[in-house]
Design a protein that fits this description.
disordered C terminus, 243 residues, single chain, Uracil-DNA Glycosylase, subunit E, disordered N terminus, globular, 6-stranded mixed β-sheet, 11% strand, 36% helix
């Protein structure tokens, strides 16, 4: 863990359940607290009858995961509403279909928490756990939230592969691994779709984020994401040599 841990509860968490509870109760970033709670009060018309989660969103998936997918942050009316990462928005719909296609999810759609979604061998998390204005957390907010990702990686004892969904997640993964004693290679590995680098006992793989900005423009297609997920599956397989 970093020498300065700005988020009490991230380091002391003894298991994923304790970490999830610490994340869900965090109020460390005033701007993000105000934004996420305002969105939960204001809502949008199509979800006006729903009760929003309105809190930081923990990771979700298999506690024995060999693959960890890291996104940017919850959507204001997606994870911030449902309380589960990549659930209840178009980005999640795209991601679950791709994960189901390669065997990392037991269904191709998940619109709400508590639906029994299973992610065999995988876990999904975010670099920043609160919905940020304009989907742009500040540098300080990213740094403040990072100990949660550091601890999550640390608690996933069987983890082998980290998929960074976007450049911000790529940087968060590099910094988190460095905090765990795995220095970033020099020159610094550049993010790109399909980019891949071995860091310590892990393999970091890049993929474009399944945002509508990428999927509607064709920058990211289902087959492109499935290709990265299949590569991660191969790397995470029993006996895979990542060194």
């Amino acid at each position: 863990m970093p020498d300065h841990d700005p988020v009490p509860g991230a380091g002391p968490a003894h298991d994923l359940g304790e970490l999830d509870a610490a994340i869900a109760s965090c109020r460390a970033c005033p701007r993000l607290v105000a934004w996420r709670e305002a969105q939960a009060r204001i809502k949008v018309k199509r979800f006006r009858s729903e009760t929003y989660w309105g809190r930081p969103v923990p990771g979700y998936g298999d506690p024995h995961a060999r693959i960890l997918l890291v996104g940017l942050a919850p959507a204001a009316h997606g994870g911030n509403r449902t309380g589960r990462v990549f659930t209840g928005d178009a980005s999640g719909d795209f991601l679950w279909r791709a994960m189901h296609a390669v065997g990392l999810a037991d269904r191709a759609q998940s619109r709400r928490a508590g639906d029994g979604l299973a992610l065999p061998g995988a876990r999904v998390a975010a670099a920043v756990r609160c919905a940020p204005p304009a989907n742009r957390p500040t540098t300080l907010e990213q740094a403040t939230c990072r100990p949660y990702l550091v601890r999550e990686i640390q608690l996933l004892a069987e983890l082998r592969v980290i998929i960074a969904l976007g450049g911000l997640a790529w940087d968060a993964a590099l910094r988190s691994l460095a905090a765990l004693g795995h220095p970033t290679p020099r020159p610094k590995p550049r993010f790109g779709h399909g980019a891949e680098v071995a860091i310590g006992s892990y393999r970091l793989v890049g993929a474009y984020h399944p945002s509508q900005q990428n999927t509607f423009t064709g920058r990211l297609t289902p087959s492109m994401l499935e290709t990265v997920l299949r590569r991660a599956n191969a790397l995470a397989g029993h006996g895979a040599d990542l060194t």
